[in-house]
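Quick question: who can interpret this fold?

. . .
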Amino acid sequence: MKNIKTFGELKASSYKSKSIKDELRENLIQKLQTGTQIFDGIVGYEDTVIPDIERAILSRHNINLLGLRGQAKTRIARQMTNLLDEWIPIIAGSEINDDPMNPLSIFAKNILAEQGDNTPITWLHRSDRYTEKLATPDVSIADMIGDVDPIKAANLRLSYADERAIHFGIIPRSNRCIFVINELPDLQPRIQVALFNILQEGDVQIRGFKLRFNLDIQFIFTANPEDYTNRGSIVTPLKDRIGSQILTHYPKSIHLSKKITSQEAKIATPQKDKIEVSDLLKTLIEKIADEARNSEFVDLKSGVSTRLTIAAYENLVSTAERRILINNEAKTFARVSDLFGTIAAINGKIELVYEGEQEGSAMVAQTLIGKAIRNYFTELFSDTGKLKKKKTPSPYQAVIDWFGEGNELDILHTERDTTFKKMLDSISGLDEIIDSHLQPVKNNDRYVMKEFVLYALAEHSQIGKTVLERAVQFKDLFGSVFNTKSFDLDEGGLN
């Protein structure tokens, strides 16, 4: 088909013109019948969002994807091009991708009238049939729909009353394409009103020209629920003309969250070869996001994007990588203390309410990390609070007593692995805690778990902990109140 170069050859072929909505529908039906995967890399929507999208396509609906940020709305829209035919014919030189069988523009109609079967045809690939526009307050009617172009009129010696003087906007130029408007509520109401007839009747008005344009477009809109009350709203008549409104959501389990993070995080092969990351730390990163989504310091209407966990995981690996570069080591494993190297990633991914702003973003991030450690510890080990209420002997007493005897543990963030392991091995009772609560934990994972127990006991106020710029100190909870030791940043050690 792609070898066809003229309108006459196209008519003589088996080509049949169809609307983009029929095109999407027919290709979806074929993929569903053959069990072909439609959306690649979209995790956690298999039983919720994707079936809704498939139903909307089968119904030939325009779609509004409604959800908080970082819920793959734009990715879904971009992948819908996979449901388009690979190539479609257009009249050569057409600004609005005129279908040779159903021309819309004056240009296309004139050239067909003049050249007939000799009208030249070109072919448009599906990858070029996607247009995306971010709705911002400065978007104008001319941008979206079009305006009279005085330069074009002058060059072609046309009157402003001549339809050929119109410069088409982004929507007419997206004829026979998927057109996405991101953050629809941010679009000014008067622009939203201009979309009414395009969606329903196909009318377009440009500077007094009332054009009957049956534009063939698959519209996809995205919106954040926050925008309905804050920055703007979708005007009711426009919302009424959108066939399907589909609600997106964050991953519904830690397993799915980890799968998304692992898939999306940009970790270079050398990093993967040199740095080992335990499943415990992968889970903790997802737990941090969960804590943020339930925190009194974070604006929940704004949402906590899955980009938080992706960026935090990248920072975690980079924190460990920095340590081996400083120590000139070949390999290492990420530690619980490396989570504090993710604060920069967390800071940029959360919107704080007033109380959070008072606390400060870095302090809120540290609080989220601490809560994630505290709460996940109670899932894996005995809850220290419940043990106190039951007056049951604490399985953590040996560790608590070790620090109570005046022992302290001061671990530099850049501590070598061999020294780090020796320090943890010196603490009485850590191995027994892990062995009594968990399945066998071996190799480096065991040391990550030991460190996790220390952080968790500190979060549960069983031992004392002080996070410094270059190190973390663990000590007796009550003795630390009277301890006058300070960390010398210049010397990199304790005085």
Q: What stands out?
A: The chain has three domains: 7-247, 251-380, 381-495. Residues 481-495 have pLDDT under 50 and may be disordered. Residues 246 and 332 are 44 Å apart (CA to CA).
